[in-house]
Amino acid sequence: MNRSRSVLAGAFVAVVLLTVAAVIAVPRWAPLVAAAGIMVIVAARWPKTFVGAGLLAIVASPTLTNWLEWADYLDEAVIVIAAAVFVTRRLIATRRVVVPAWAWWFAVFVALGLVSALVHSVPAVVMLSGAFLAVKGLVFGLSVAQLDWSPSSVRPFLRGGAVVVVTIFVACLANIPDPVWWASVFHGEAEFFRGELGFASLIGPFVQPAALGRVCALLVVAIIAYQLTVRSSWLQLVLLGMASFGALASFRVKTYVSVIAGVLTVGVLARRSIPRWLIITVAASAVVAAVPLYLFVSHDVYLYVFSESARSRMTLGAVHLAGEYFPWGAGFGRYGSYTASAWYSPEYLRLGFDSVRGLGPGPTQGDYLNDTQWPAIIGEAGFIGGAAFAGGLVHVIVSAVRGRNGAQPALHTWVRLTTVGWLSVMIVESIAAPVFTSPPAYAIPFVAVGVLHSLDRQWRARLESGAQHDRDESSGAEIGD
After folding, report:
1. Distance from first CA to last CA of the chain, Å, rounded?
2. 371: exposed, middle or buried (C-beta count within 10 Å: 0-12, 13-18, 19+)?
3. pTM of the complete model beyond 0.85
4. Between the CA of residue 423 and those of 217, 262, 315, what are the distances in Å?
5. Residue where one domain finishes, among candidates 97, 127, 150
6. What is the residue range of 380's domain?
7. What does the DSSP assignment read for 104-167?
8. 8 A C-beta contact, residue 53 and residue 42
9. What is the pLDDT of residue 477?
10. Least packed by Cβ within 10 Å: which of 177, 252, 387, 457?
11. 3-state secondary structure of 430
């Protein structure tokens, strides 16, 4: 308790000193420094509340950026503060930092990305910017893992998730009457599917249909996992319908496929009979969506696999660079990432991307430079780095599946199934979007991974404590005999 108060007192003193310094040195920075200071205090005193609020801030940051310029750095600020404060708290309390086994896979990826950048003399500002972009989700997950979570501390996130579902659904309903006007309000994209149906792709409270679809896909998986592991209710069915509507209304093939992958993953891992309502709902949806889904998927497969698209050029370019520079890549900040597009990479010029539509320099010509995930991972860290990143994901999933125990609380099991389901969603979406690095959804699965690691760690500690207690009692009995 005294240590917690020391952390809080130290954070408060630091905030006051930094705010005073900002007022003296650069007055216009004072509000931002004060805001950051408040975030530090909240993180130190109420860390789990900070995780929830920070997660909401990351999800909302692309929308907020349209009105608040500083919101563009909101997700980075949340992650940096969480890492600094949570690690400090852990060191003070236990004098050691939690390092999950799967983190070493990602450490290899990071090391290869940095070494590759050094080998190719990438400027430090580009290298560090690209490196932070590549690992910020991982850093947030590791920071969350430093906290001691329990099933009861997960409950507030359930209530918050329900509020998020209702908010998104209401925004989608408001989006329907005039999608063009709604998109102009949010500075988003009013994309229309010009097929037989002629429906508009909704954006809800986000700036792109893809963002709406991805967040709703994660919500659908989480709700179904709750139904299968904790309890089923009509309220859950209503929330499921709302989240499913958002996913469907995005009209994104990757969202449809990722929802199917996530739901199937959760259903298989649940190891129980599937409720009749879920079977009927899935069967009815499959019948209704069969033809439109086939048209969507076949169109995208032709566009991105069999045609000379920007996305296929990016993928082939990453393979080319990884082969040319083997065992290195082009280095962080040099291929497939936002950093590589902001500082238009020399690799793009060398590959002739400056003359390809959507891959040119500048914000108006480079719309597709940051359109996928794995070209950035492989292109910047090479084949070995890409394999290490994939190995880390596999390690997380396998550990989550193997760690299941029937005696664990229902909410613990829910976090486990949801984590694996969310990673399934993100892996599918990563084929066509930079889902591990870009808001609004990139932080969500990493937070779940961190929470699950903490729950598993404490569960093992309780089992070991119980086993030790049994051994002590047995030893005492033998001495008495």
Report:
1. 42
2. buried
3. yes
4. 11, 8, 22
5. 97
6. 101-162+273-481
7. HHHHHHHHHHHHHHHHTT--HHHHHHHHHHHHHHHHHHHHHHTS---HHHHHHHHHHHHHHHHH
8. yes
9. 46
10. 177
11. coil
